[in-house]
Every structure is written in C-alpha cells, then in structure tokens.
C-alpha cells in the first residue's frame, strides 16, 4: 500500500489486523501442553481460557484471590499468572465436598 493508503476505518487511524496465527505461542508455566497466544491477557481473555464469567475473574482479582498485575486501572494476567491460578485450583479442595468422617449420605454398614 502506498502513502496515504489504508485498510478500512478512518484514514490515519491504526489498523488492527487479525493475525492471531502469526503470534507466537507462549507456554503456560506449570501446565504442560497449555499455550496462549499473548504475553498479557485481560480479564475477558483469562475468563475465556478458564471457561468462567469475566465478572468472576474481575471479582477474584479485586479480592486478591488470583495473581494479576495492574497497568493503570486495567487488570492484566501473564501466562505465569494463569499457571498459578490453575495449579492453585488443583491443590485446593473443592467447596462443598465433605469427607466421610464429617458425615455422608452414604449408609454405613
């Protein structure tokens, strides 16, 4: 494209090309085989990877329940943060799961 040429949008405005396939894959530390295509994710991106609502990610970050960083007023997550979130969730017992010693619906023989 020559000088003054542009691809859609307003002349002079930056053009965002959909080049997701050209972005390098970034491995997620602590989670073998999982890669993301961005060094930084916003709350919507992290929510999409985890399969949870964006509002849940934002609430957990505000409460300090998940690792994150702030760029001004914006919350961002690195692949390392994602790895920590996943490994912490695997180590933590699920809420609502009771052990046999605390009572159970199972009949004791």
From TrEMBL:
GO molecular function, one term: DNA binding
Region (Disordered): 84-109
Residues making up the signal peptide according to the UniProt record: none
Pfam families, per database record: HTH_17 (PF12728)
Listed Polar residues bias regions: 98-109
Stretches assigned to the Helix-turn-helix domain: 46-79
InterPro entries: HTH_17 (IPR041657), SinI_DNA-bd (IPR010093)
Matching NCBIfam families: excise (TIGR01764)
Protein name per its UniProtKB record: Helix-turn-helix domain-containing protein
Organism this protein belongs to: Cellulomonas soli
UniProt lineage: Bacteria, Bacillati, Actinomycetota, Actinomycetes, Micrococcales
């Amino acid at each position: 494209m020559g000088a003054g040429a542009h691809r859609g949008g307003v002349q002079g405005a930056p053009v965002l090309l959909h080049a997701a396939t050209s972005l390098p894959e970034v491995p997620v530390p602590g989670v073998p085989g999982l890669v993301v295509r961005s060094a930084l994710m916003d709350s919507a991106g992290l929510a999409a990877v985890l399969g949870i609502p964006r509002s849940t990610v934002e609430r957990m970050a505000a409460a300090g329940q998940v690792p994150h960083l702030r760029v001004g007023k914006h919350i961002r997550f690195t692949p390392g943060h994602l790895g920590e979130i996943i490994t912490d969730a695997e180590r933590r017992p699920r809420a609502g799961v009771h052990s046999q010693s605390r009572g159970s619906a199972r009949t004791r023989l």
